[in-house]
Amino acid sequence: MPKANITFQDIGVTVTVPAGTRLIEVSEKVGAGITYGCREGECCTCLTRIVSGHEHLAEPSVLEHQVLRDNLAPRRHRLACQAQVLGGSIIVQPA
Amino acid sequence: MRPAADLERAVSVAAGVHWIGAFDADLRSFDIILRTANGTSYNAYAVRGSDGVAIIDTVKINFSETFFRRLESIADYDEITHIVLNHLEPDHSGALPELLRRAPGATLLVSPQARLMLKGLLDPAELAGRIAYVGTGDHADLGDRQLEFLNTPYLHWPDTQCTWLPDEGVLFSADFLGCHYCDSRLFNDAVGDFRFSFDYYYAHIMRPFRAYVRTALDLIEPLPLRIIAPAHGPILRRDPRDYVARYRAFAASALHGAATKSLLVFYISAYGATRRMAEAVAAGAESASGATGEVRVSLYDLEGGDAQPFVDLIEEADALLFGSPTINGDAVKPVWDLLSSLTMVDVKGKFAAAFGSYGWSGEAVPMIEDRLRRLKLRVPLPGVRARLTPTGDDFAACHELGREVALHLLGRATPRSIDLSQLA
């Protein structure tokens, strides 16, 4: 199975994960500052800045696009509960 | 002061601006978390322009009749072109569904962050084509005057916005700069002394969001304010800037001095084991800080203090470590009392860890870690647990925990790489 490396910059930890993993699944296990609320892509609590490797995440859904717009999210920001890693290396920070 | 029954009329606030809210003099507890000796008011306003009337906020549903009577005293429903909801909490949106029915020509103006809450409040079919999402830079045209909008989220809900009427210098500030103080004399230069209510309201409603308070103040302070019209409590027409300045002071640091990083170790101990672990944690943190004192390390026994002063310290701190023994499969009550008080302040993103001694199963440490994560702190380092009397290895682990946390604060922690399968 393809692997990806996610670096949580706020705690200095890189985690190797299978492709298809959502950012929040890793963030809560590793104790990073990206935390969740609804886990359903609505509340925007898990807004995350993608420092690099944005291209290694699956495209946002229509719902995620809408929530990002409603919450005035800057560019290169994703919902950790929605964003799935595809491979490569991704560096993230809490928004 | 209790409102007289014959006071159910609109009250002029400025040219073409009326208060059409309601008094709830008997309320003593609000949202469970606040007490009020004076009840509260649900402030709603009407702004008349040459081409229409805007209603800004409504009231709690039980007070709808009063609200509509006041509204009808100064406007017809078919004149209403805009309904602005600065904040959708039920005490301000209670009369909204009925108002939308009575004023079918009105458009509802809310912030984009209100979309999620609206789903829980109104039938989307009823609203089709009647909503506009507005933010900073947007305005609503009333003909000879206009309303402007300021996106001010998390004051105290994500949807909160302020509405600005530039020609009269009136800021409709939602819960921001409000308070629970019911007095039918309505204006701050006429009502009783409500200063404690103003401060108490900030402490319980706005304080957890003080970073957002500062951002909102940056938007509000440049405005030529003449009147602040909040959604609760007196309308601030005398010296409105004094209240803005008060918020600016509140939103600054609650404690004096100390620009260095602050690491706090809290513990409680039945037989001294957790206390000695706490001392080892503190010593470890101190060792990372070194002679330069870049991290100020403090150690507190929860048995000797009330939660509130600790909450003030925690608000200003960078890292928090909690030590608790396990008794009956749980952390002990003073620890939970402190942890349950942390919703009063912004703790998101602070660094945290837990430790403690136990006899049988040692649930306290993971339970504390779970609570800290739910409070949105960073908890990346596994806690330290010691069965009954801590060994030399246990003290070394505590020392290392303190040292690691301090190194993180200093940006000197060694990066780690792990596989997902290694995480629980």
Main β-sheet, spatial strand arrangement of chain A: 2-1-5-3-4
Please summarize the sheet with the most strands of chain A. 5 strands, mixed
Q: Which CATH architecture of chain A?
A: Roll
CATH superfamily of chain A: Beta-grasp domain
Just name the CATH architecture of the largest domain in chain B: 4-Layer Sandwich
Structural domains of chain A: how many: 1
CATH homologous group name of the largest domain in chain B: Ribonuclease Z/Hydroxyacylglutathione hydrolase-like
Radius of gyration of chain B: 26 Å
- How would you classify the helix and strand content of chain B by structural class? alpha/beta
Mean pLDDT over all positions of chain A: 95
User: Can you count the helices of chain B?
Assistant: 13
Greatest interface (CB-CB under 8 A), with counts per chain? A-B, 30 and 30 residues
Task: Write up this protein.
The complex is a heterodimer of chains A (95) and B (424). With 95 residues, chain A is an alpha+beta fold. Chain A has a single domain (3-94), classed as Beta-grasp domain (Ubiquitin-like (UB roll)). Chain A is 18% helix and 29% strand. Chain A has a five-stranded mixed beta sheet, with helices on one face. In chain A, strand 1 (3-8) and strand 2 form a beta hairpin. With 424 residues, chain B is of the alpha/beta class. Chain B folds into two domains: 5-251, Metallo-beta-lactamase, Chain A (4-Layer Sandwich); 261-409, 3-Layer(aba) Sandwich (Rossmann fold). Chain B is built from 13 helices and 22 strands. Chain B has helices at residues 64-72, 90-93, 96-102, 115-119, 124-127, 195-206, 210-220, 240-251, 273-289, 307-316, 333-340, 364-374, 392-409, and strands spanning 11-14, 17-19, 22-24, 29-30, 34-35, 40-42, 45-49, 52-56, 80-84, 107-110, 131-133, 139-141, 146-151, 161-165, 170-172, 227-229, 261-267, 295-301, 319-323, 351-358, 384-387, 416-419. Chain B has a seven-stranded mixed beta sheet with strand order 1-2-7-8-9-10-11, with no helix packed on it. The longest helix of chain B has 18 residues, at 392-409. Chain B is elongated, with a radius of gyration of 26 Å. The chains are: A alpha+beta (95), B alpha/beta (424).
